[in-house]
Every structure is written in C-alpha cells, then in structure tokens.
Design brief:
Radius of gyration: 18 Å
Distance between the termini: 8 Å
CATH architecture of the largest domain: Alpha-Beta Complex
Number of domains: 2
CATH topology of the largest domain: Creatine Amidinohydrolase
Number of strands: 14
Strand content: 25-35%
Oligomer: single chain
Order of helices and strands: HHEEEEHHEEEEEEHHHEEEE
Largest sheet: 5 strands, antiparallel
Bound molecules: manganese (II) ion
CATH superfamily of the largest domain: Creatinase/methionine aminopeptidase superfamily
Length: 288
Amino acid sequence: MKRALERGRELIAPGASVLEICEEVEDIIRKLSDGPAFPCNLSVSYEAAHYSPIPEDPKRLPEKGIVKLDLGAHVDGRIADSAISVLLKEVPKHEKLSQAVKEALDRSLKRAKPKLPVSAIGTTISATIKRKGFKPVRNLGGHGLAPYLVHSGVSIPNVPEALPWKLEPGRAYAIEPFGTDGAGYVVEGKEVTIYSLHPRPPKGWEERAGEAKELVAVIYERFKTMPFSPRWLVDVYPYQRLKELLDKLVRAGALVDYPVLLEAKKGEVAQWEHTIFVKEDGIVVTTL
Ligand code: MN
Ligand code: MN
C-alpha cells in the first residue's frame, strides 16, 4: 500500500497521463496483495473523489492543483484503504490546506481507541480543519470496512454529527478527512468511472437486466462486491458495448455506480486517509 502510494507520488506531475499512473500503481498492488480493492482514484482540484481513468483515457494532469491519490488493496477480501494529497505546483494556499487535512487525520488517529464514538472523530477533524481557515467536506467521510465491502454501512463523519456508532474491537475502519476552500460539500458530477455489484440487489433485477445478466457472473468472479473499473473488463466486451451493459445493470439495480464527486463551489479539495484495525486494547494503523 505504502509502496504503491509512494510510486504514485513520484509519478504525479504536470502533463503526466492519469491512465499511466493508475495502471502502474495498480500493478504494484497486484504484486503485493490479492489485488486492488477498488480502482485507483486520481481526482484533481475540485474533483474531490471517484475519478478513475476510463479505457484509453487521454486525460493529463494540469499545471497546478491538489491531486488526491486514493488506493485500495485486499488480501482475502480484507481491505486496506489509504489516500494522499500531492501538489502539482507549490501554491502556499494548497500547501496549507493539504497540511490542515493531514493534521486532522493525524489527530484523529491519536484519538482513536476502542469504543470511541465516531462523532468524536468528526469533532476532531472539523475543529482541526476550521482552525486553519478551511472547511471540512461535510458529506464525505470515513467508513467501516467488511470482507469484500469497502463501505460496511458504518460512517465516520468529518463534522460533529451525532451518529450511533462506536469504534468496535475486531473491526477495521477507514478514516478520511477532506478539506476545502470552497462550499464545504460535494455534488455528483455526470461522469461515472467506477461501479460495484450491489450486495443485495432488489427483486426482479435479472428480468430487467436481460442480456446484460451474463456480465454479472464475470464481475462477481473477478471482483466480488468490490468496486471495479471498466478498464478491467475490456477483454470481455469493447468499451462502448461494455458501458451500455454496465449502465443497463445500474438501471436494473444489480450494480451501484459511483459518480465523480465535485466540490459544490469548485473549491480546491485535499484528502488524507488511513485504515485502522481496532483491537481490545488499542488500534493499529494497517496502511503505514
Ligand atoms: Mn480511500
Ligand atoms: Mn475510504
């Protein structure tokens, strides 16, 4: 995980191909684990999250902005999820924002312990980011991890929010503060570059899926219920056809799609993330 992020950091530069960076770091993850737990996310500036390159993606990194590199790896479905922010150009405001979010993560990790209410982490993150003059992104946050599931259903807020959960021994969680100089919340963009199988699809999805049904078996075999990139299925169908089938499966309820998330006022966004495992007597950061 750390090696993949470090290699990604080296490759991130103005003009670099987003596709080439992601394919290289995904290859590193394949060598060191059972494979990616979700596609390499490389989101730039006001793209807060969920941009992963599409097949033959021509996108290149711009001259300046904050790049969020968010990677996942798994071993037997046990997931590690970690992200860093990298500046394309030394802009003091970007540096200050990235450092504020990194400090929010560091302070959350210091505070994390068994049975801590998740709302306490939201309070720590929010206060740290606000003290530096920025806003936490209120509708993004951390999450519980479960076997082959990146989101277990438990949320870890980035703002003081009264949620019912505590950090439970025996469980893993991703803690991921996001900060911005924009509105402080994200909206869904039009682009979709990441999908996953619905863990409990609604009744009747098979009939609605029609000829797209066969693709579900391939997806389950390769990725179980973890998010995947259409890049990882272009050996089955050419991309245009694949995209039609994936969209059909989303409409049928068999697939979840993850639109690119954009800062509502196009503010710059920084993100830092680690995964923790909670033991009876403390926590271990699994992505160092
Ligand atoms: Mn992540
Ligand atoms: Mn995460």
